[in-house]
Amino acid sequence: MGDQAVHDIVLTFDDNFWGPAYATMRSLCLTSTDPTALRFHVFHTGLKSDNLAIIQSIADDYGAALHLTDLQQSDILGARIAAFPRIRMKRLNPIVYVRLFLSELLPAGTKRALYIDADTFVRNPIEKLFAIDMQGKVIAAVLQPDRMHCVAGRDLSARSSLSMAEPYYNAGVMLIDLERYAAVDFIAGLKGLPAAELEQFYYDQDILNYVLKGQFLELDPRWNMQNPEPAHEVFDPHILHYSSDSRPWWPWARVAFKQTYRHLMTNAHYYRYQREQYWRLLRRLLRLG
Length: 289
Description:
Blueprint: E1 7-13, H1 18-31, E2 38-44, H2 49-62, E3 65-70, H3 78-82, H4 102-105, E4 112-116, E5 120-122, H5 127-130, E6 139-141, H6 147-152, E7 173-177, H7 178-181, H8 186-190, H9 195-198, H10 203-211, E8 216-218, E9 225-226, E10 239-241, H11 258-265, H12 267-288
Parallel strand pairs: 1-2, 1-4, 2-3, 6-8, 9-10
Antiparallel strand pairs: 4-7, 5-10, 6-7
């Protein structure tokens, strides 16, 4: 890559999300002004060999760099997770915690990194986001649309750690200043919270919003258009985030750019992935029955 700028991008997913992850990575390459300058860091919990080959094809097809870490074969997060106070939501799933340790997990000297969920579709050059002035903030992100419910939950009950009067950001698309991020001590930041309050925390999104209060730069919603419907297409969103149950691979879903998404994943991968999801849904229904 020579002396050109490198754009570091992080994804975390398991084998149930190989198809959307491929679509996200492909969309980043297709819309990039220079896909050879993209460097993907993929943290996964075991991928079948054929699915792994599909993810690896991104490097061959677009010239992007690809670094894969199988968290089932590595204990790089074990000691760090063990040091955290108990949190109810899937505490032992390492994927949940990768975002909190990016300054340690990414190559030394990495200045900025984009964390992006695997249920996204990037439609405009990601270089535009990397080029923004972060104004000294640690993270640049978009507000959570349903933040009142995320903060307060059932019956909008008050919580001591988070307030509905303050901004609350979605952690699915985050541009991170890693030099500032490295100085954050999340364990120290959580000390003093009652155990009952910690048990209500929603994955690492609550942790980020609590510990980094006042250190977020608010982005234009088009950088993380959540739960996008066809009517949102007119806004020319930069990143679509299919974060609800209405996923673009379900035929009954009403989502923005649904047909384009199918071709983004490619027809072959899309229909194979769709069949897998049908079987997964059927098995879940049979267990409930």
